[in-house]
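For reference, the entry.
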Amino acid sequence: MRLTTVLALPLAAMPFAAHGQEAADPSAPIVVTGRGLEETPATPAYDVTVLTREVLTRAASGRIEDVLSSVAGFQQFRRSDSRSSNPSAQGVTLRALGGNATSRSLVLLDGVPMADPFFGYIPLSALAPERLAAVRVTRGGGSGAFGAGAVAGTIELDSAGAGELGLASGEALVDDRGETEVSATLAPRLGRGFAVVSARWDQGDGFWTTPKAQRVAASARARFDSWSAGLRLVAPLSDTIELQARGIGFDDQRTLRFKDGDTASSGQDASLRVVGRGRWQFDALGYVQARDFSNIVISSTSFRKTLDQRRTPSTGLGGKLEVRPPLGDDHVARVGIDYRRASGGLQEEAYSAVTGLVTARRRAGGKNGDLGLFAQDDWTPQFFGGSLVLTGGVRADRWTIRDGYFRERNAAGAATIASTFANRSGWDVSVRGGAVAKLGGGVQLRGAGYTGLRLPTLNELYRPFVVFPVTTRANAALRNERLRGFEGGIDFTPMPALTLSATAFDNRVRNAIANVTIATNVRERRNVAAVHARGIELGAQARLGAFAFDGSLALTDAEVEANGASAALDGKRPAQTPKIAGSATLSWQPATNWRLATTLRRTGRQFEDDLEIDALPATTTLDAFAQVPLTRGFSLVLRGENLTGERIVTRNQAGSIDLGVPRTLWAGIRLGG
């Protein structure tokens, strides 16, 4: 699909969708939201958690992954946050489905998939919580209309508009190591629409990720220097149609473990969206992404450069058109089409750890595509008085994996490997269905079943990588992952100020892609028969005057089902997967712009590797946040991360350890709420 076609999708949708719309009341105010279409009636059939702007703006670290960690079961591939991890390890997942650093959860910003087109990781440092109005997390396969890739769930980020942000807002903070965080947003109203201009810059020398006993002269702090900037325009095209345009740019520089072990990621994204809320509702979207990544690997024995992954440029193109035809008060139907295309290539040089000379030059890459057709209907039978909602949907994906290659030349320029991989394509069909019933007395029952699809990324197919001394090989023969799962839950709201929820689930990902050990210090990406996760998710929200409590707990039994060459993994827990994850936040808001909150998190023991040899101990951390009004819209902000100084082990390879964030104290000034 050409870029012009993608960007023309919203414009092509306008005349079709506008036809048949009812005439608007000329006296009614035009409300421009900057959001997509409203949730459908059956959304509560799935295990959904909504994080409000209040939650988003009180994170102790100021980072989106910290906020998302309040949803038990959310995890990155590693425990490190976006200041001290390799960006390519920032894959996010839910429900302990494990795997590798690629995201098994679909992350959307204003409807646009945010995963890197080549790697599948999420650029977390570019997703500033203060720019968001809300986040909706759907665990499991409850997102058939939003595209392939959501085998573990969907995380939908909604940008804040002028109403939430105010004309001007921002903050500036410094921590006890001298690191700084500065952000600013300007959100003027322009006629009946608005604009949002935002920027953020984080920098610092970082903390020691290497334990003191393992440091050498070449060891380095986890230095970071990242910025992001965005422009968003929202304007009405008519009384029922609004236009949303967004552009974002970011750059993230990090140093990991050793001096000169530098990693960088950057990107420029643009999207155009047209949303219609008339009789024929529609959501038309087109986007383009340009991303790049580089990484230098330093030997842990000679401390020389052994690998320079100097460029990994990639491009993502996509679009979506969803239409909701008017079928009466009993039905909310959704039909549509979406498309995603990823292309990219690796450029790297390998060096001798002894001589420091180039030993090989490698190039690898390819193109992946997915065209999806979807239809769904939510039915609210009137003979039940609106207390029962039934939903069913089907999705067909035409996927392609093509133009894959891997080439290697020696130092003299002679070709040593020249592999071209066969093109592949096919159709996969996914279905989902569910029901939610209100029984009275504040009791609501829900249940759902679903299937889903995820294509292997270009990274998994073609790019080998090294986390010294372990080399992980790519595998161009990887098959698609397929989800099959079901869940049931109960929500109990005995009074408006108290909600309790429980969900039991059984999710199985067939052909799950994992990093499989095949020799000493050698792994390869392979499909195992399945990763099977069963568990219980509990939630509690309570309000008592100015006090509030939010808690979340996930208890998961996950295991690998394997045979053949991967039989040694059978029955073992997936790498990086804890059995227990929980979060509890107690907050107090006695008056406007006053906020005090403390968060306790527990993450259970997990394993670094697939063979359950290297363990990462369980961790319990305590964070705190305080906002105290000063004058004229300004507030004092105090934040504390890991206040108990817990030793957080984020990597353990045969005793070589990396650590997560130590006790960190922040102080600064905030303008606006």
Remarks:
- The domain at 3-21+31-671 is CATH 2.40.170.20 (Maltoporin; Chain A).
- The chain is about 5% helix and 55% strand.
- The chain has one domain: 3-21+31-671.
- The longest strand covers residues 388-410.
